[in-house]
Design goal:
The structure holds 2 protein chains of 2 kinds. By secondary structure, chain A is an alpha/beta fold. Chain A is built from 10 helices and 10 strands. Classes of the chains: A alpha/beta, B mainly alpha. The complex binds adenosine-5'-triphosphate and magnesium ion.
Chain lengths: ~230, ~280
């Protein structure tokens, strides 16, 4: 369970997100919808410790991690797939995956076989540099790397951005597998409605630094309701 | 023929010292973006370690083991006490490390005086290389430096710590978010850099006057090395050292030393104009 209690955060004096409270329950795929620039990435960065909130608390399974360094939060089981994927371009695919192992509690230094089995396209390219992969392949690598830390929570920032529909469908299937078979608790920031509809168990809309409302899965199916909520 | 070999061997002597000093500087700059103006003084500290240890009756080889430990320890303390608070402020780092440099130089001078310290070369023989008699010590020094550089290369390419370093150089936030304790890696890397400088100091000491200001000369040259070679990679440091050390040694045979040093600077500037990312692109 991942919990934000009235957190505010930003880059200068003026906070970008204000008093956001949010709970991602175990087993949920909670989706955050919101237009460009409302602070979705800012919220995720605060949750994983890259941005220290100016007020409020962050809890993982009830443990207060607000003051923790991101590396410590990672080791507590929170994996992060950032907007833009965050692949290290000059490391090979294998090295990118190895870096993913740094978040493991058991300090194991072997890439788990079941992760490799889940991503056959990576297995063929272990020695290729991360920067030479296509956008879709990089996204798959980012997902695989996140799994290498054997996390309990997964935070994803617009994994569909700039990616072709067939890979988006693959990502959708993967997220459902992560949730159902690996028991991952997932927080997904996303704008692609297809991906949102096929994965969300809950959905919140974000507007100018605050959560404005919740959309039920039924409301999500209705284009009109979604556009209204997003004020498009 | 004999002259060519002598010049090459002399060049190799300078190049190998520059590689060691430059590598430490390149790690610190490439990884943390810290311009460490006190780096040369860790070379001095290494040389003074040799003087002290030999003064107490210890051997050169003992000093070669102890000096890097002292260099690492002092580097670690410097990082913990000063550098770590200034990472986001390059100008402040430059000022602080410059201040530290002055403090180290003045303290050494106060304690040990201005006269050169006595140090002894561990080998006084010479060996015959391709028909040229050359001091054995210099040959050993070059060999040791190459061995250390190769070791550093292997560490950076093949070990867990090396992977952490390469990861952080590319994207510190992402490295941290994946579970790498980047603060810890920074302090270890900084210590490693100062340890390398101290080793260079020991190796260099028998060939030069060991005084409190000896580091300045090597600081400037190793900055050229890093700028010319490209920061953040071992091959870059090797290429930069070959360029700076080779050019300077060669010019020294043709023009006065001061002029040759100025010319190296001019060449370095031209080279950086032509290849802004350095000789070796990373
Ligand atoms: N590093 C930064 N420094 C200063 N301001 C920033 C920084 N990053 C983001 N901002 C500002 O914070 C606000 C929210 O940005 P954020 O990236 O969180 O939005 P977002 O909802 O993720 O948008 P998008 O959908 O485009 O990714 C924007 O106004 C942005 O300009
Ligand atoms: Mg964003």
């Amino acid at each position: 369970m991942l919990e934000a209690r009235e957190i505010s955060a930003g880059y200068g004096i003026v906070p970008v997100i204000r008093n956001i409270s949010l709970t991602v329950d175990n087993g949920d795929i909670l989706v955050l919808l919101g237009r460009n620039g409302v602070g979705k990435t800012t919220l995720l960065k605060s949750l994983i410790g890259l941005l220290k909130p100016s007020s409020g608390k962050i809890l993982i399974d009830g443990l207060d991690v607000t003051e923790w360094a991101p590396s410590r939060i990672a080791k507590a089981g929170v994996a992060y797939v950032p907007q833009g994927r965050g692949i290290f371009p000059k490391l090979t695919v294998e090295e990118n995956l190895r870096v993913g192992l740094r978040g493991r509690k058991d300090r194991s230094s072997t890439i788990p076989d079941d992760v490799l089995a889940m991503f056959p396209i990576l297995k063929e390219r272990m020695n290729q540099l991360g920067g030479t992969l296509s956008g879709g392949q990089q996204q798959i690598l980012a997902l695989a790397r996140a799994l290498c830390s054997d996390p309990s929570h997964l935070l994803l920032d617009e994994p569909s951005e700039g990616i072709q529909p067939s890979i988006i469908r693959q990502i959708s299937e993967l997220l459902q597998t992560f949730s159902h078979e690996l028991d991952l608790t997932i927080l997904l920031v996303e704008q692609n409605l297809e991906l949102v509809r096929t994965t969300a168990t809950r959905c919140f809309v974000m507007e100018k630094g605050c959560l404005s409302r919740e959309l039920t899965t039924d409301e999500l199916e209705d284009d009109q309701k979604v556009f209204e909520a997003l004020a498009l | 023929m004999g002259a060519v070999i002598t010049i090459s061997l002399n060049a190799m002597t300078l190049i190998s010292i520059l590689m060691l000093v430059g590598l430490g500087l390149a790690i610190i700059y490439g990884l943390m973006g810290v311009i460490n103006l006190s780096h040369g003084d860790f070379v001095t500290i290494g040389a003074f370690c040799l003087a002290i240890i030999q003064g107490l009756g210890g051997s050169f080889w003992l000093a070669l083991l102890i000096a890097p430990l002292i260099g690492a320890l002092l580097g670690f303390l410097t990082e913990q006490a000063i550098i770590r608070f200034l990472y986001a402020r390059p100008l402040a780092t430059i000022m602080a490390t410059w201040g530290l440099s002055l403090i180290i130089q003045q303290s050494l001078q106060l304690i040990f005086g201005a006269a050169p310290q006595k140090v002894f070369s561990p080998l006084t023989t010479s060996i015959n290389l391709l028909g040229v008699n050359y001091p054995s010590y210099r040959v050993v020094m070059v060999a040791l430096s190459i061995a250390i550089i190769v070791m550093a290369f292997v560490i950076i390419r093949k070990t867990k710590f090396g992977l952490d370093l390469r990861t952080i150089i590319q994207d510190r936030d992402m490295a941290e978010a994946l579970g790498i304790d980047t603060k810890f890696v920074y302090s270890i890397a900084f210590s490693l850099g100062t340890a390398l400088a101290a080793i260079a100091g020991v190796l260099l000491a028998p060939l030069t006057a060991v005084i409190a200001q000896m580091g300045i000369n090597y600081l400037a040259k190793s900055f050229f090395v890093v700028i010319v070679g490209g920061a953040g990679s071992v091959p870059g440091v090797v290429a930069g050292s070959l360029f700076v050390g080779g050019t300077e040694t060669l010019l020294n045979y043709i023009v006065p030393t001061t002029l040759s040093q100025a010319l190296v600077l001019v060449f370095a500037i031209i080279l950086v104009r032509v290849r802004p990312s350095g000789l070796v692109r990373t």
